[in-house]
Structures are given as structure tokens and as C-alpha cells.
Amino acid sequence: MMVEMTPELAEICGLHAGDGYMRVREDGKGEVSISGSYGEKEYYDKYIIPLFNKIFNLNIKGKFFSGGTYGFVSYQKIIRDTLLVNGFPPGKKTTIVRVPKSILDSNNKVLFCCFLRGLFDADGNLFFRKSYGTKNDFKNGHNHYPILSLTTSSQFLAEGIIKMLHNLDINFYYYMRAPKRPNDNKRHVVSVSGTDELAKWMEMIGTKNDAQFSRYLIWKKFGFCPSNTSLSQREDILNGKLAIS
């Protein structure tokens, strides 16, 4: 039994495209796993795992993995079959993963937003940089300018991201980053920058990941967000327990 494409499944597809892994053995058995940093445990326990349990009617539990990650692994065939029918390959998908055709060809903005949110929450980055060479001391000294980025080694995925952002009327920059070592893959970077474009993203797509959202909330409250802070430090800043300047 397959699960039909819905906004919630589109978000799951985005999550899997970013941080998921699927293995299918010759006997048809296998597993699907998704994991993030230890700091994202609450995000997995309160959002990602309940989302999978709801869509697939399961009772998945979170777990810590070696290597400093937290997430889940499921051996349920329904998840594998749903991902396979939507074009996700088993095994290493780094350079070949793409947006499912059922999403990309739909021209459905809701599906686009949900996929992009899942992808960003799993594998994206929101940061703020200083402005140099201006006469504004605040901008010179504080990380105030927002940049939201999605980076992938798959040209197919980058092309899908670009098509969806065009459709959503969100401006972006695209560039390729050369590999640092001979065996590395080149990286495709799609970034959304500036106050207006970040506002569009947050209004239309948003984020469910507290690690990302806390940066945004600090920036909204103070006009800047310091770099190299942990989620717990950012929560203390927002709760007035830690001062920033």
C-alpha cells in the first residue's frame, strides 16, 4: 500500500533528501534512517518522528547513534516503498537525489513549500554576516545580514530547488563550489539572502527546527544574531538568561 502525495509526505521527502538513507537488500528487506546532531533531539522527538508515525501509522522511537547523531531507523516496508515509488534511490544518493516528480511536476506551491521546509530543516543553514566597508558601526560589528543556504552535491536536486523558488517568487543566488580535494564532489549552493527574501521564506515555508528558528528569533528581536552559539545558548538569550552585545 502506497501513501499518496500530501503536504506532510512532501515534507518527509524533503527530510529524506537532506538527511535520509535507505538500504534495500536483494530479498526486498532493508531500512530507512534519518538522523541529525544531538542538539536536534527535541526536534526529532517532537516533530520528525511524530510526523513519520502519523503518515505511516507506525510507532517509531528515537535513538542515539554512534558518531554523535540522533534520529531513528525503521525496517517498515511501507516507508521504503513510498520513497522508492517517489524516485529516491537506495544506497548512496549524494549526487543523484532529486525532487520527486510527483512534487516538482505538480506546480503545487503548498507541496513545494513543504518539501523545501523539510530539506532546509534537515540539511540547510541560516546564518547572519557582518557588512564591511560601510560607515555603519552596527553593521560593521554585528552579524545582521541574513543568508539562508541549501547546499547539495546533486545538480538534479539543485535544479529542482531553483524551479520551486522561481515558482514561489523567492529571489536567490546559485553558484557552484569547486571540490577541495580530488575525490570530493563539486557543491551546488542555492542561497536566499536579505531581509525581504528571508521574510518571504519564513512566511511561506518557515522552519520547524528550533536550531534554525532560534537564530531567526534572535535576529528579529535584536537585529543581529551572534555566530558560534549553541541552541541552549540561544534559548538562554531569548529567555533573558544570557546577554549579547
Short overview:
The protein is of the alpha+beta class and 245 residues long. The chain has 10 helices and 8 strands. It folds into 2 domains: 87 residues, Homing endonucleases (Endonuclease I-creI, Roll); 118 residues, Roll (Endonuclease I-creI), CATH 3.10.28.10.
Please tag this protein with its features.
single chain; 245 residues; alpha+beta; Endonuclease I-creI; 2 domains; 4-stranded antiparallel sheet; 44% helix
Please tell me about this protein's structure.
With about 240 residues, the protein is of the alpha+beta class. The protein has two domains: about 5-95, Endonuclease I-creI (Roll); about 120-240, Homing endonucleases (Endonuclease I-creI, Roll), CATH 3.10.28. About 45% of the residues lie in helices and about 20% in strands. It has ten helices and eight strands. It has helices spanning about 5-20, 40-55, 75-85, 100-105, 110-125, 135-140, 155-170, 195-205, 210-220, 230-240; strands at about 20-25, 30-35, 65, 70-75, 125-130, 145-150, 175, 185-195. The strands form two sheets. The protein has a four-stranded antiparallel beta sheet. A four-stranded antiparallel beta sheet has the order 5-6-8-7. α1 (about 5-20) runs parallel beside α5, α5 crosses α7 (about 155-170) and α9 (about 210-220) packs parallel to α10 (about 230-240). The protein is globular, with a radius of gyration of 19 Å. The relative contact order is 0.14. The mean pLDDT is about 95.
